[in-house]
Amino acid sequence: MYEALKQQQSLGFDCVVPIPLSPDKQERGHFNRTRILANELAALLGVRVADLLSLSAPISKRQFLSAGWTQAEFEYHYHQLLRVDASVTKYARILLLDDVCTQGSTLNCALRRIREAHPHAQLTANTAGQMLLKSVVTDDRLIVGQKPALLFTDLSPETR
Q1: What is the extent of the structural domain holding 36?
Q2: Measured between alpha carbons, how far is 28 from 89 in angstroms, rounded to an integer?
Q3: Looking at residue 87, which CATH number applies to its domain?
Q4: pLDDT digits (tens, 9 = 90+) for 99-130
Q5: Strands of 15-18's sheet, edge to edge?
Q6: What pLDDT digit, counting tens, does each position of 58-114 carry?
Q7: Which of 58, 52, 61, 45 is closest to 19 using CA atoms?
Q8: Dihedral of CA 160/45/117/18: which sign?
Q9: Does residue 120 contact residue 154 with C-beta atoms inside 8 Å?
Q10: Whole-model pTM?
Q11: How many domains in the chain?
């Protein structure tokens, strides 16, 4: 991830924001892979990890979809549960981090929530791996990373 950022000369961030672990997984002691990655990447970038995102209730994409709900319905519910800390406005350049991007649901919701709370922030999303990208970034010109790391830049509505 760091190398993809470095290759794109995109190292100037104020913080790294990990996608939050569902509260039920946290209570059961699951490893928070995204937080671990965020700690390492933030150390390499010389910035802090800012836990600006949280979930107000448990949600599992796998269980949601297995129960017959659609991807759109999952995104709606995830978006409703996702909270952004008011201190987000302290940061002009935010690196949003997820461990894996399968269909982009959590990243999409997080980017939308942060954009709602801080419309002028420069947002970049980075993942350790990808499964499917098209549902997140519809304009291929915004894709600036390469496999296995994935990096999107400036997903503001003005650039779509």
Answers
A1: 2-159
A2: 32
A3: 3.40.50
A4: 887 778 899 999 999 999 999 999 988 888 76
A5: 48-49, 15-18, 93-101, 122-130, 150-153
A6: 998 888 888 999 989 999 999 999 999 999 999 999 999 998 877 788 999 999 999
A7: 52
A8: positive
A9: no
A10: 0.79
A11: 1
